[in-house]
Request: fold
Amino acid sequence: MGDPLRFRDDPAPDEPGVSLDAFLNQKDATSVLLEAGDDVRALLPELGRVRLVEIDFPRFRDGRGFSSASILREAGYTGEIRAIGDVLIDLVFFMRRCGFDSFEPDAPFHPGAVDAALSRYPDVYQSATDGRVPVWALRHPQFATERRQFLPLVWTVVRHLARAPYINQTIVP
Reply:
């Protein structure tokens, strides 16, 4: 693997990522490597000291990393999020929308292919962490304002329910 493809102007972090468990158990690490299956929410209290989050894609069919990047951006993380592993050029557009701003794929991208992938879809149809305005909001700005005011309340309820002890338990009659 060569240099990562970056969409940032700041200097690239040079510290290799350590596992999530190792990161949480030491106080001097600034880069973390999230493996498939790691719960990114465990990292949220430590975001202030994180410069780089590397999210591994062991297989292109494993999309959990998309959710991890979105969770980090929605929590206010502004540091670098790098996709590593089996990252396909076809997914770069969608990864950028979820919050990835650097890529280190197993097989290097051709520069022209990156430009083509990022310009393939001029319009978007749903909100994401990249701040692009969806087509429906451009057509009906009054609904976009109402939705922006309503979504924080929805996410508060979802987070509250996710912490409830009865969630994910099987109810046996």
Notes: The beta strands are 5-6, 18-19, 31-34, 52-57, 80-85, 102-105.
